Amino acid sequence: MNVIFNHVAIVGLGLIGGSLARDLKEKKLVGKVSAYGRNIERLKAARSLGLVDACYERFEDGIADVDAVVIATPVGMIAEQALALAPYLRQGTIITDVGSVKGPIVSALESRMPEGLSFIGGHPIAGTENSGYEASCAGLFENRVCILTPTRNTDARALELVQSLWAAVGSRVVLMDVETHDKIIAAISHLPHMVAFALVNALVEMKDFEQNILQYSAGGFRDFTRIAASDPVMWRDIALMNRDNLLTTIDFFLRSLGELKDAIQESNGSRLEALFRQSQDARRGI
User: Fold this and answer.
1) Does domain 5-176 have CATH number 3.40.50.720?
2) pLDDT band at 219 (very low <50, low <70, confident <90, very high)
3) CATH 1.10.3660.10 corresponds to the domain 180-284
4) Are strands 145-149 and 118-124 parallel, antiparallel or unpaired?
5) What is d(CA 210, CA 124) in angstroms, rounded to the nearest whole number?
6) Positive or negative CA dihedral for 125, 129, 131, 137?
7) Can you give the C-alpha Rg of the chain in angstroms?
8) What gap in Å lies between CA 238 and CA 227, rounded to an integer?
9) Closest of 60, 66, 64 to residue 52, by C-alpha
10) How far, CA to CA in Å, does 198 sit from each of 49, 213, 232?
11) What pLDDT, in 10s, does the model give residues 64-116?
């Protein structure tokens, strides 16, 4: 594959940032990968493993010649990080991110990005419940959707390069406005996490049993609640930043759960079967 950028900086070398670094290096898509973060010892350990070529704690170090910056921190920090590093970037540098909430971030940066720099909101829909570069893996983005959220002010060349980057690591790139993105992701990603968190908490707090009932959980429960092991700080920020959309989807879920509760309470077998079949058909269609 052709080199897309000579030098890419990744801010936040966790699961997503680390997996992207692996792909960029293994596929030789960039000449150099640098990592930035608050824990320099962890970054040095990642460098010793060959995950990145250089690592820095301060933005003023080593970032002046980068072509693109990928911010892979928790969503609550993305706009702050972009504005903090912008003064050290040269004209023409592209900044993008991987956050699963786009509206507040794009809004915060659209009017405050210095002239000559481009910000393009991005969201690769990939990951696991694990965190840290230790959980990173090559091929994480293969055959996964990556949503980019350009605006009317987005530089066309910058958008083309970011599209090329994600396509080169195997993603199917989709362009979408920020409002649509945040509504869709609230439903298909953020709501399932809230449900998993709530279900595990409900069983933990259930007082009708003398023993810890979670020790009896089998494959179905563990598969369904796997995402409840996700980073609490990250999901706190996501829930608050996508608050309105998430509240709407929670209301829809509660109404659906209420339908099941009513059918069970009324011993309405035909209604239960119809609801289950509707869900079965929809799931098989995915």
Assistant:
1) yes
2) low
3) yes
4) antiparallel
5) 43
6) negative
7) 21
8) 14
9) 66
10) 38, 16, 13
11) 999 999 999 999 999 999 999 999 999 999 999 999 999 999 999 988 999 99
